[in-house]
Every structure is written in C-alpha cells, then in structure tokens.
Fold this protein.
Amino acid sequence: MKLTINRAQEIFEKMAGQRVLVAGDLILDRFIYGTVSRVSPEAPIPVVEVTGEKYMPGGAGNVCANVAALGGRCLAAGILGQDAHGAELKRVFGAMGIDCGAVYELPGSQTTVKTRVIAERQQVVRVDRERYPDWTGADKEKFIAKVCAAVKNSTAVIVEDYGKGTLEQDVVDIIVSTAHEAGIPVGYDPKDTHPLHVGGITFASPNRRETFAVAGMPYVRPAANPLEDKPLIEAGRILQERWEAEVLLVTLSEHGMLLLEQGAAPQHIPTRAREVFDVSGAGDTVIAAYMLALAAGASFLEAAELANFAAGVVVGKIGTACCTQTELLAYMGTFTSGSAA
C-alpha cells in the first residue's frame, strides 16, 4: 500500500468542500428484520416474527448516502413516484443532508422499492416493486432542466445506472456534455444489460462481469493474478477506448481491483476485506469514495486504494451500507502500525 494514513487525512479534509451530483435510478430499500423459530404449516417455508424495520436509500440513492457519509455534499438526481415510498425516500435523504433539488416526482410513476426480509443475519426473501417510468416530452424536459442546474452547482458528477429507466441515452448525453462544459470530472457505473455511450468520462467502475458483457466478450474465469488476466485486461482496454475514459477501475470482489490508466501499466489493488457478510452495495461505496477522493485532489492510485478500504468496511455489514471517514481511518489502521504500509 502506498497510501498513508496521513495522506488519507489530507484527502478527507478536502472532501468536505466537494459537491457531488449523483444521477441515476433512485431506489428505496426496505429491510424487515425478524427471528425464525418454526416452519409454516401452510408451506415448507420459515415463519419470520418481525422485530424491526428500516428504510435506506438503494440503487443510485446508496451512492448518494455513501458520498454524504464520507463527508461530501451530495445532490441527488432521479425519478420518484408521487407515492408514499417516494416521500419516505426523500425523508431519508433529508435526514442524511442530501439535496433533493434535482429529484423529479413523475406523475403516474411508481417509486422502485426492494423489500428484504432478514432473519438471523440471513436474507430469507426479496420482494421488488418497480415499473419503468413512462416519460412524456414535457416531463423529461423538466427533469433535464433540474439536472443541468445541479451539474452547474457541482464539483463532480456520478452517472449511476441500475437499468430502471432514468438514464436514457439523451438524458446521459446532456448530463455528460454539461459536466464537460463545467470542467468537472464524470464517473460512470454501468449496467451490463443497459449499454450507454458516455464518451469522454474521467473514469468508469464496472465489475468483472460487466466489463466482459459490455465489451462484447465471453466471460472467462479469473486468473489467480489479475495482472496476468489477459482477457480481462483486453476487455477493460476496449471499454476504456470506447468510453474515452482516463481510467477504468474494475472491481474484482475478493480479488480487489484492477486499475487501468491511459498510457500506464495495469495496477492491482488487493482486497482489504477481513470478513465478508454482504457484498450488496459495495460497488456503490467504491464509486462514491473514488470520485470524492479524485475531486479532493487524490491521484488515480490513491483514490483506488482509499475506495478499496471503504469497500472492505461495508462488506462487513449487513445490507446496503455506508462507510464514514472515522470507520475508514480505523480500518486502515488495522493494516499498518505506522503512517504508511
């Protein structure tokens, strides 16, 4: 590890002044917690006795939550329905200090909700409610106007695609072009089933499967050493050229990350997770931490190392989770006894 704790603290101090716009599919994550002591007499399924319930931002909303938790100022941009679930998500955002000025309540739409039932630290079932937004030209123009105003008031933009219909190509084109005009960095987290053109971005952070799928290459099993994984590097370079990205940060789950920078040799950042309970949402933490660090003046490699540690924190938690600066510094400290490692 080249990133020292002292350097991380310097980066953290500059994060507070960053205004990061997160544009994408906003989802409400509902968690129902309980215990299981018997099997239902109606079917061979467990009976969950509910002990608690919690609402959290999901999808692009989880990226927003991670930006806020790490000390940045977040502006959310996305579509909600004019319903109770949309109101609940806005309430949760407000409690986190997330600006909802670019959130558009689309008439006739439905807020996407993912309900997870968790018993004894295990997910029993997930129930999804979602409907692709039915845009009218006037609705889309109103949303785009909100987003463009938010971009101009930001220091960085994250395009977070969960394939739920918010990020259509014309919307993304305007977001990216407005960011270019403003001279601010753009990060992109793709969805393999919803390819978008995002030319001229600062970085993208696909996972391994998304990298192969979007590059149009058949998936192959990972090599023991990511730096010797020629198919992955080839797929990554294809995407880097297609998106004109300065950097591609490929997340590799238990194998860490692969950093592909234009004009430089690939670099591997080994995993920093000690114990894994739940990997859901880890990619959201990665892109939030990486963009905040870049906006705060970190190098591409420093930002990757910081994001890698942040991912190590959240996979040790249940459900979609966030990482704070305090947690991140404490976690880094377990890997080094001094200021560097």
